Amino acid sequence: MFENRIVVWDIEASRRLFKDSYYGKPLGIPKPKDFEFDAPLILDLMESYYLVKKKKLRVESEEGEALSAKEVEALCAAGYPNFREQYLVYSLLRESGFVVGPGIKFGSDFAVYEHGPGIDHAPYLVQVEKDESQVTATGMVRSGRLATTVRKQFIIAIVNVETRKADFLGFDWWRA
What we know:
The protein has 2 domains: 1-79, tRNA intron endonuclease, N-terminal domain (MutS, DNA mismatch repair protein, domain I, 3-Layer(aba) Sandwich), CATH 3.40.1170.20; 81-176, Trna Endonuclease, Chain: A, domain 1, CATH 3.40.1350.10. The chain has 5 helices and 8 strands, in the order E-H-E-E-H-H-H-E-E-E-H-E-E. The chain has helices at residues 11-19, 45-53, 69-79, 83-95, 137-149; strands at residues 5-8, 25-26, 41-44, 99-102, 110-113, 124-130, 153-160, 165-171. A 5-stranded mixed β-sheet has the order 4-5-6-7-8. It has a 3-stranded antiparallel β-sheet with strand order 1-3-2. A hairpin with a 7-residue loop joins strand 4 (99-102) and strand 5 (110-113). Helix 2 runs antiparallel to helix 3 (69-79). 33% of the residues are buried. The model has no long low-confidence stretch (mean pLDDT 89).
């Protein structure tokens, strides 16, 4: 673990994780063409926690001590204001076969791919909201205009953490 990122220094392990549903990003390679890169893999906390829970990753502190899933969860909760809701949506999408990446450059929580970065463009932008959240008309228009500009469908995931369910509402904008 390094600051708020997880670094997989072992190149073979990095390749396996990236090849297994595009986890992380190879350091210094913005758009890898294949799985034969020679660089460490950088994972964000959300996907690291997911992999720890799936027993595909062991996270160590900067001092080399193994962190439990609960400790990684606590780091995530400190780093993401709506971690529980976002993680629920992240895991639901991953378990449905989607590749989920950060959506920050699009002003959303997630950019979601059907196949993976470099294979296809992310067709969806997902914004996570609590079931009691209020979404403004201005916020909807802003998100919709951005999604349309980058040719993506805007989706709001409305989460109820207690029931561990999310409803996904997709919006398409038409030009008259």
